[in-house]
Give the backbone structure.
Amino acid sequence: MATAAPLFFDDVRLVIELILLVFALVIEAVSLVHAITQRSDAFAAIGTLPKGGWIAILLVCMLLTLLGVGGGVISIFGLIGIAAALIYLLDVRVGLRDLHDGRGFW
């Protein structure tokens, strides 16, 4: 009975890490696709990094998360990747949408 707890703990930890990995990859992929599909002059109009800079940041973050460098999603690289994708989605995407009068399907 006492030996079942560590086995159960490892299974739960692996499931949680898998869920976090899928969540991080989805968030990073959505932000990368959105950055690729936008016009490059719109980024300068809202006063943020250029389109190439955002694409490079999001692509590197997605690759580091996908490769699991440093321990996966819970590592510092994984957390930076999630933060960069969320900053793009919650700040830059909103600015780009406001620039286009909010008439996009994104």
